[in-house]
Design goal:
The complex is a heterodimer of chains A (514) and B (298). Helix content of chain A is 51%, strand content 22%. Chain A has 514 residues and is an alpha+beta fold. The two termini of chain A are 18 Å apart. Chain B folds into two domains: 205 residues, Multidrug efflux transporter AcrB transmembrane fold; 76 residues, Alpha-Beta Plaits. Chain B is elongated and about 80 Å long. The chains are: A alpha+beta (514), B alpha+beta (298).
């Protein structure tokens, strides 16, 4: 075990230097990087916000099932199937029909794909029906129909979340899908996420609707920005989809912040027609079911440009413009998990983390020197090499270092010497029975090998499971612990063994103290 | 090499372990574990505000009618930790609390950390924590079963259960908070304790092959003594590192390092006094390992 061929020695040191060199990349100046690789700091160390958002597609399902009512009625009529008691019931439709067989054929025919599309991905129709009794049936979305609604809502939400966050202009945001209903947002360096949370919390569904004189059927009673009760027609003249731009602006007359918007061609047409036909009436601008303002239509607006005023502060006008530009979210987003760390706490954490790392490191080094003298020096050299390789690998992987990650490194320092301790203790035992020192070292290494492997693999298993199931900072711990074990095995079994062989072979048969 | 008579203490140690284990189970079952917001859901706010008393923060929050609120000092003077229980997702809560505190307290308030975990997410985190620990125990069991014989596998798993339950029992007794990092600590303890057990088991297996005449009790005693120096040195270096985190690593890592320190003591104890005696009950002898070898190499 103590004989190394030149090639082996070369490979060992080449590998060590190659990996260790990467750890120095972290010392590069940020503005002038030769190689763009470094260890990233987790949000808990550099400060920032982690948000987990969840879409709520229930309301969307209700909306979508309502949109099926007219096509289904039409389909039934066209095919001369009589129906009665048609009812919208939450997220399903109830009705009685006279010819179930015909309905079944019709409902699942490719011809009527418009009403009940066939989803190729899932090999299923969007809608399903169940028979309740004789001729009463319940129509609802199939499992896969729900899935497509959910997936498209999620994709759309991610896109809009990205637009809104980019518009606010935070540095290097991360926006990812998590599971089937969630969006993960990481905003490094952000001290106060409240503005972003407020921006993401609004669906920003904008509608232009006429104010009606009477409270007849087809109106909603809403409270205006001045506290006035108004009957707003349910008919939507134009919605936010037709907006191509929105910017905050200052109205010259009274320096009031407003939002000016530009419509696309279709929107301009619709808006022009509606304002021409309704001069003198009031137009309500409704955002997420609340009236922003309800100004009088003084003259037709056909240019496709308009302005929204509503007692805004400039910040509010800016945010509204941003929301309108980015488009509406299909469903409201709920923050189901939030973790925000201020930059000063992050700095404190780095400081205390590094301090405890250095102190722990020095204590372990002194203890090993005291215990094993020259071989303690070898173990310590291996330990330093180990730390260099560990940071090197973290750099190559561009891993994220978290506070628990630093704890993982410190723990690696404490446990890394175990491999060498196992070996040295074994050699001590061998020296008692073995006359030749070289033989004692040889068999010491050979016999300890299996134990060292077994012992480290068990910890590695724990680290891998932690990585698979852990979240956020804990994952950082698993990464450093796991990589630490591998670099420990390498440094103990190759580097330290080679150094030991140099010492042993050069002292020949003189007295060796271990 | 030391020559302590560990095996004479096996019986007493086992009774001691069983009692500790049972007390821990009773504590966990009846006193319960003090789950943090990670697993219970709720809001945590760490703030720094000089010249402020915990009582004035409490007063501000009391007026908000938030239900169960917990305010305590956290580390340095002027640092506080607020915990608010929360039954459902409410995205308006944090800004309201922040605003009220900023307005009502007389000095500047620096919100250093805000964490909010909704009820659904906390339930999921708890579930995945339990799965992670169970899975790691199963993986260890499997690894030892592949590498050793089944008696060793069961012995080591009993030792692991012993460590995990007693560590959690101590957390229950002291009402220390269980959060994500404690789960990480428990998993690391599992790894560490296994590590210790494997070293002794390796030696037991080696000695079983060497000394056919010796009883398993004596083999265990011999093996523990032979590896004792290593056991102690590794525990010392690990503890040096852990105490360094515990004392200097800041408030956030304190619970984690405390759990690990407990784990190192319990894990080291269990490798010697739980994992090794169990082999005796299974009547392990050199024949056990010989049979296994025949099976593997026909």
């Amino acid at each position: 075990m103590l004989n190394f061929s030149k090639i082996n020695v070369l490979i060992i040191y080449f590998l060590f230097i190659f990996i260790a060199v990467f750890s120095f990349l972290n010392l590069q100046n940020d503005n002038n990087r030769l190689v763009n690789k470094k260890i990233n700091l987790g949000l808990d160390l550099q400060g920032g916000s982690y948000l987990l958002l969840e879409i709520n597609s229930d309301s969307l399902v209700k909306e979508k099932i309502q949109s099926k009512v007219i096509p289904i009625k039409k389909l039934l009529k066209e095919n001369e199937i009589n129906y009665k008691n048609f009812k919208i019931n939450d997220d399903n439709l109830l009705l009685s029909i006279d010819n179930l067989e015909k309905f079944d054929l019709l409902f699942k025919s490719r011809k009527d794909n418009l009403v009940n599309p066939y989803i190729d991905n899932y090999r299923s129709y969007e809608l399903d029906y169940t028979k309740i009794n004789n001729n009463k049936i319940k129509i609802s979305f199939s499992k896969f129909g729900l899935l497509t609604i959910n997936n498209s809502a999620l994709k759309q939400s991610i896109e809009i979340v990205r637009r809104r966050i980019d518009d606010v202009g935070t540095k290097e945001p991360t926006i990812l899908q998590r599971g089937e209903k969630r969006i993960l947002v990481e905003l490094p360096g952000l001290k106060d996420p409240e503005r972003i949370k407020a921006l993401l919390g609004k669906t920003a569904q904008l509608n232009f609707r006429l104010v009606s004189d009477n409270n007849e059927f087809g109106t909603d009673e809403l409270i205006s920005e001045n506290g006035e009760k108004l009957n707003i027609s349910k008919r939507i003249i134009m919605s936010g989809e037709n907006l191509i731009d929105a910017q905050p602006s200052i109205q010259n007359q009274n320096n009031e912040p407003t939002v000016s918007f530009t419509l696309d061609r279709l929107g301009a047409q619709k808006f022009g027609r509606a304002t021409t036909d309704n001069v003198g009436k009031r137009l309500a601008i409704v955002l997420d079911g609340e009236i922003v303002s309800a100004p009088n239509i003084n003259e037709p607006i056909t240019s496709g440009n308009g302005m929204i005023s509503g007692n805004f502060t400039f910040q509010e006008a800016t945010d509204l413009a941003l929301l309108l530009r980015s488009g509406a979210l299909p469903t409201p987003l709920i923050v189901v998990e939030e973790r925000t760390v201020g930059p000063d706490l992050g700095e404190d954490s780095i400081k205390s983390g590094i301090t405890s790392l250095i102190v722990g490191f020095i204590l372990v080094i002194l203890f090993m020197l005291y215990k094993y003298k020259i071989f303690g020096l070898i173990a310590n050299t291996a330990l330093i090499a180990n730390l260099l390789m560990l940071t090197g690998v973290l750099t190559i992987l561009e891993a994220t270092l978290t506070l628990p990650g630093i704890a993982g490194i410190i723990l690696t320092v404490g446990m890394a010497v175990d491999a060498n301790v196992l070996i040295f203790e074994r050699i001590r035992e061998e020296l008692k029975t073995e006359k030749s020192i070289i033989h004692a070292f040889d068999s010491g290494y050979a016999r300890a090998k299996i134990t060292v492997l077994d012992a480290n693999i068990t910890t590695l298993i724990a680290a891998i499971i932690l990585f698979a199931f852990g979240s956020g900072p804990v994952k950082g711990f698993a990464i450093t612990l796991g990589i630490g074990i591998i670099t420990t095995l390498f440094t103990a079994y190759f580097l330290a063994r080679h150094l030991t062989s140099l010492v042993v072979l050069n002292t020949k048969n003189k007295e060796i103290n271990i | 090499m030391t020559n302590y008579n560990f095996s004479s203490k096996f019986k007493h140690a086992n009774i001691f372990s069983v009692i500790l284990f049972l007390i821990s189970i009773i504590l966990i079952a009846f006193k319960g574990l003090n789950y943090g917001i990670d697993f219970k859901g709720g809001t945590l706010i760490e703030l720094r505000s000089n010249n402020t008393e915990a009582s004035s923060i409490r007063d501000v929050l009391k007026n908000m009618d938030l239900g169960d609120v917990n305010v305590k000092k956290f580390g340095k003077e002027g640092d506080f930790l607020i915990k608010v229980e929360q039954k459902e997702d409410n995205n308006k809560l944090i800004p309201e609390i922040k605003k009220n505190l900023s307005d009502s307290l007389n000095s500047d308030v620096n919100f250093r950390r805000v964490e909010n975990v909704g009820p659904k997410v906390s339930a999921e985190l708890l579930q995945s924590g339990i799965i992670a620990i169970s899975l790691s125990l199963a993986a260890m069991l499997f690894y030892i079963w592949v590498r050793f014989e089944w008696q060793f596998s069961i012995g080591s798993i009993i030792a692991l259960f012993h460590d995990v339950i007693i560590t959690l029992g101590i957390f229950s007794l002291l009402a220390l908070e269980i959060n994500l990092s404690i789960i990480a600590a428990v998993l690391t303890i599992v790894g560490y304790s296994m590590n210790d057990t494997v070293v002794i088991y390796d030696r037991i297996r080696e000695n079983l092959g060497k000394f056919h005449k010796l009883d398993i009790k004596d083999i265990a005693n011999l093996s523990i003594n032979e590896t004792l120096a290593r056991t102690i040195i590794t525990s010392v270096t690990t503890l040096l590192a852990l105490f360094s985190i515990f004392i200097l690593g800041g408030e956030i890592l304190r619970g984690f390092s405390f759990a690990m320190i407990l784990g190192v003591f319990v894990g080291t104890y269990s490798s010697i006094f739980v994992a090794s005696p169990i082999l005796k009950y299974f009547k392990v002898s050199y024949k056990t390992i010989e049979k296994e070898e025949e099976k593997i190499v026909p």
